[in-house]
Amino acid sequence: MSELKEELKGKIIEQLNLEDVSVADIADDDALFGDGLGLDSIDALELIVMLDKDYGIRLSDPKEGRKIFESVQVMADYIEEHRTK
Amino acid sequence: MSKGVAITGMGIISAIGNNVAENYDALINQRKGITRVDNIETIQRDEIMVGEVKFTNDELIAQLNLPPENNYSRTAMLGVIAAKEAIANSGITNIKKYKTGIISGTSVGGMDMTEKYYYEYLTDKETQKYIESHHAGDSTQKIAEQLGVEESLVTTISTACSSAANAIMLGARLIKSGKLDRVVVGGADCLSKFTINGFKTLMILSDTFNTPFDENRKGLNLGEAAAFLVLESDAVVKAENKKVLAYVKGYGNANDAFHQTASSDNGDGATLAMEKALRVADLKASEIDYINAHGTATGNNDLSEGRAILRIFGEEMPEFSSTKAYTGHTLAAAGAIEAVYSVLALQNNIIFPNLNFKTPMKEFSMIPQTELKKKELNTVLSNSLGFGGNCSTVIFSKEA
Amino acid sequence: MKKVYINSIASISPQKTYDNCNFLDEITEYNDTVIFAQDPDYKQYIPPAAARRMAKGIKMGVVASKIAMDEAGIETVDAIITGTGMGCMIDSEKFVSAIIDNNEQYLTPTSFIQSTHNTVAGQIALGMECKAYNFTYVHSAISFESALLDAKMQLENNEAEHILVGGVEELGAHTTKVHRLINHIKPEPVSISEVLHSKTEGAVFSEGTNFFVVSNEKTKSCYAELVAVETFNTLQKEKVSEAIETFLKENNLKLDDIDLVVFGNNGDVDFDGYYNKLSEGIFSKTQQVFYKHLVGENNTVSAFGVWLASKILKTQTVPEIVKINKINSSEIKTVLCYNQYRGQNHSLVLLRKC
What we know:
The complex is a heterotrimer of chains A (about 80), B (about 400) and C (about 350).
Chain A: H1 2-15, H2 41-55, H3 62-68, H4 72-82
Chain B: E1 5-13, H1 20-28, E2 34-35, E3 50-51, H2 57-64, H3 74-89, E4 100-105, H4 111-117, H5 137-147, E5 154-157, H6 163-176, E6 182-189, H7 193-201, E7 222-223, E8 225-232, H8 234-239, E9 246-255, H9 268-281, E10 290-292, H10 299-313, E11 319-321, H11 324-327, H12 334-348, E12 350-351, E13 373-374, E14 379-386, E15 390-397
Parallel strand pairs in B: 3-7, 4-5, 4-6, 10-11, 10-14
Antiparallel strand pairs in B: 1-8, 1-9, 2-3, 6-8, 9-15, 12-13, 14-15
Helix pairs in contact in B: 2-3, 3-5, 6-12, 9-10
Chain C: E1 5-12, E2 31-32, E3 34-35, H1 48-51, H2 56-72, E4 79-83, H3 89-101, H4 109-115, H5 119-128, E5 133-137, H6 143-156, E6 162-169, H7 173-181, E7 190-191, E8 205-206, E9 208-215, E10 224-234, H8 240-250, E11 260-263, H9 273-280, E12 287-290, H10 292-295, H11 302-315, E13 334-341, E14 344-353
Parallel strand pairs in C: 3-8, 4-5, 4-6, 11-12, 11-13
Antiparallel strand pairs in C: 1-9, 1-10, 2-7, 6-9, 10-14, 13-14
Helix pairs in contact in C: 2-5, 3-4
């Protein structure tokens, strides 16, 4: 699980081009959107593709994403439960 | 400055018809042009619906009598067809008699050929002729060439989905300022894998018929089309004893400055655009008889635009409808397509229905016009809203 | 009708032009077929959160617009109008190649969104929270001049007081590669001093941006009065002189009134004839300058010509490196810029000392 969380942090930084952020800067429970890491709706769409590509989870409604991407912890829990690869 | 600019001709090709008459016939008979995509090989075929012009590129080449070595993108071919109809409709036989310019809007440009031959260019000499037709201005240059417009002001606007509305706006200002006597304005965009997949990544494409302003709307259908209007100065209209179809009475452009792709919740940009257009037209909101809304059927657009319309019109809401359910969202061409429909509405005193509407949105009680309706129309307001927060409104009128 | 002034300028180009205190004092030598813009410190102008999705063209446009706004000393404008012939090439290429390479699967939205032609104008508006008129012209070599003309009309009619106008172009690797194949790019590297006499086809491709605040009131920082702008989709080589004379006449000027001409020569043996004919003809007795040997060729590089003319008018100095002939005007009051690309899309911009 903690491995998955580290992996996710790395992917978020790389995929979303967060140049000035390092893995250590993101706590498991930090909010990813809004006041936390400051991600927005375009980032949510990027993360939806990542879920599909890397974990075989397909979301059809972008609104679902916002709940799943609340924090790295929530994301990791969701992926553990639903992953197909 | 508030005098209208005369529209003396128009031409169109869209998913619901290859000329103005066919488009009108489809509009009043409520025949939509939304189908599966046939002319593009895409793995998204079964997941999306589109408003496609059913001619293949070869058929368009034959129709335009282009030589085999031509390098026309599909955007250029659609554009030429619509622009030629507009010129013929305006009764112009000698284009050089007056100082004539062309302003076109496009977002796709020659991307259809670029995506087809992207890697082939490197190895296949035959395909290399299309390298030069990639840039957005190329389709406009070709339209100019086909119309015989030389040594003149020919330019292209690309502001995403408001491009053609902005072309009409610039054209009207060029006529008013006396820079040109006559200007052909409009837009053209063809379907492409680029836009199909682009909008797919934004998760705003519907897998079925689009339903503007409906609570359960699932997104837009992309479309392809071209439409052009001929705008002429009062002097030309008088000298040539021209029949005027309608006038460009007002126009306004504003930026939402909110988000790169989404519109603000309150539709600030659209509100500003409508306010400006009313001011230029010197009309009160209550004097607008029909609104041809942008109404793309995405969750975001219809809510934002609806709120903006409410802010402007409040209790005095005229009939409004989106014609996107007929044609799909034709991107940069949309403002010109809907300009033609607005003029047809004025000419025939008819309001085209907002097809596929069932359930009112929960956020407000606005209900679009869902049946074909006869009504004496003197003014029509048309909205075009795009990426980059670009919001445009054009007002058309029967009288100058 | 109100007069129109260029009140501030900003340029990011293959030369170190982003600092307005300098005027081509130090020249960067190139010996290449493609040259890139020299980067200012983008971080100084764009917060990292905003910059993370921006390709070079967008960054250049946003920064140049800020430099121009700072120099003009204003916070906001009544319109933002940009020109870009090729648009956001880097993101366009990224998205097209992703579509093909991944067979339309696992595509992400960012490059698609950023590829839209009006991204730069939209980003500037977003950064400034400017809800005003926002247009982008995309017509090859006259993209910038279309923007300039639009701005001028609005200012003359007092529909606006201050307008931000600019042109921006970025190089995309694939686009460069394919343009090489059709000989639009020079076959051999050329140095700055050789460009004009290279006698080969094609140009040295480049990128860059130039922004201006144009207003209908003159401010302290004023560079020049923008007298007239005209564009032509076609113009035969034999008719350019006539078109220029007509243009000058419409502005109540004679050939003699032009103190300096700015030409868009790029060393393409097939198309420099347009300039040479003027150089040896109607302007043989006029001081002539050029700039594409320093900053290369791109669809909105003619805005650099306007930048150069503005600098010359304000400083009344002409750097040696841009001189074509040996004629020196004692006072430079009126400047004409002429540009075309591959024989199409000609433009004339007339500037006057303010």
